[in-house]
Amino acid sequence: MAAGNAGERRDSDSGQRLQVFLAHAGLASRRAAEGIIAAGRVSVNGVAVSAQGSKVFPGDVVLVDGRPVQQETRRVYLALNKPPGYICSSSDPQGRPLALDLLPRDISERMYNVGRLDFLSCGLIFFTNDGDFAARLGHPGSGLEKEYLVEATGHISDEAVQAFQRGITIEGVRYKARLVERTASRCLRIVLIEGKNREIRRVFSHFHLHPSRLRRVRIGPVKLDNLAEGACRPLTESEVEALQKTRRILHHVR
């Protein structure tokens, strides 16, 4: 039987919300942790917990998919240059290569990607075990710029460039870039803020275009620069600090 609140037998003010505990353990971002809880994959002291807002306390035994979860003390922040043909997920039922597998083998912490790049896209993506960091950067209201270099298989019309810059509604969804700059007949530099799912590909498809290469070269103050494809590096202390100064207000994600 699912428990409505794992900590109801104790002073609720002294506990920690279960999704926060999972995020701090490096299991997932808070938003993803809420999905894990709702799916009934979590138990506390042997009792299944599916209600949001449940709390855990010192000494509680927390399991996810039957495996114990413990808090991690070291925070890890990595920048990866994801090649095309890798999926941003902790697993894939189709057996496709995981971007996660490109991270150094000596990292023992459970890492997960911050945001996504689709299977065919390449470029800069972050990995971390810090749930607060991931939630702040991954929220649409963060105001974090993401810059892409896109090459199409054919000429990109001025109409497509201007529509993406002004804003265009496709199947009820509004898409608007902060900047669209032509660099060649078939090439654009695009800066996004919201980063809706497959935004660039959906706009290109609307104008009967196909990106032959879509590469993210910047997230906020962090640039891809000369990081080799498939390689990763730790984010510097100043980069992490700058990223944490995005406009996202933390209490909105708690």
Can you put this structure into words, describing what you see?
Strands 7, 8, 9, 10, 13, 14, 15, 16 and 17 form a 9-stranded mixed sheet that branches. Strands 3-2-5-6 form a 4-stranded antiparallel sheet. Strands 1-4 form a two-stranded antiparallel sheet. Helix 1 crosses helix 2. The protein folds into 3 domains: 57 residues, RNA-binding S4 domain (Structural Genomics Hypothetical 15.5 Kd Protein In mrcA-pckA Intergenic Region, Chain A, Roll), CATH 3.10.290; 97 residues, Pseudouridine synthase I, catalytic domain, N-terminal subdomain (Alpha-Beta Plaits), CATH 3.30.70; 75 residues, Alpha-Beta Plaits. The chain is α+β, with helices and mostly antiparallel strands and 254 residues long. A hairpin with a 7-residue loop joins strand 8 and strand 9.
Coarse morphology: elongated
Which superfamily, in CATH terms, is the homologous superfamily of the largest domain? Answer: Pseudouridine synthase I, catalytic domain, N-terminal subdomain
CA gyration radius, whole angstroms? 20 Å
What is the CATH class name of the largest domain? Alpha Beta
Q: Portion of residues in helices?
A: 10-25%
Number of extended strands: 17
The whole-number mean of residue pLDDT values reads 87
Second rung of CATH, namely the architecture of the largest domain: 2-Layer Sandwich
How can the largest sheet be summarized?
A: 9 strands, mixed
| H-E order | EHHEEEEEEEEHEHEEEEHEEEH
* Helix count, DSSP H or I runs of 4 or more residues: 6
Uncertain stretches: 1-9, 248-254
> Could you say how many structural domains there are in total?
3
Give the class from helix and strand content and strand pairing: alpha+beta
Strand content: 25-35%
Distance between the termini: 26 Å
CATH topology of the largest domain: Alpha-Beta Plaits
